[in-house]
Amino acid sequence: VQLQASGGGLVQPGGSLRLSCAASGFTLGYYAIAWLRQAAGKEREWVACISNSGGMSTHTDSVKGRFTISRDNTKNTVYLQMNSLKPEDTAAYYCATELSQCRDIATMTSFGPWGQGTLVTVSS
Q1: Angle at the Cα of 42 (from 60 to 103), degrees rounded to 5?
Q2: Consecutive 10-residue runs of the chain (124 residues): their mean pLDDT?
């Protein structure tokens, strides 16, 4: 069971990136998936979560209207489209299975296996 996040990089403020979370060894479509991030010196926080079918998603307040989580179960992949990026979005981004269909995401206790992160740097 492995999740791999990719797509990070250096982008200017106001720019866009799309992160991907790919699964190997299991069928991603069985699980809700969350994106989380951790900035240097700060606690890890949840960013977005999507149910296993894709029918329900939620985003933390600081990214609402700028980030969109989506999934393509035929490709075993979940995405995070990030627009209007700000310097405060700079962080390592991770994806993880989420065990409550996103109902308990705010508790930060409902995660299964994590993937390796991808670094997003927003700077001019």
Answers
A1: 30
A2: 92 98 89 96 96 96 98 95 98 95 90 88 97
Which residues are CB-contacts of 18 (< 8 A; sequence separation ≥ 6)?
Answer: 7, 79, 80, 81, 82
What is d(CA 42, CA 19) in angstroms, rounded to the nearest whole number?
21
Q: How far is residue 8 from each of residues 23, 27, 94, 119, measured CA to CA in Å?
A: 17, 24, 10, 5
Residues 6+ apart with CB under 8 A from 59: 47, 48, 67, 68, 69
At CA 47, angle to CA 41 and CA 48, rounded to 5? 165
What pLDDT is attached to residue 85?
98
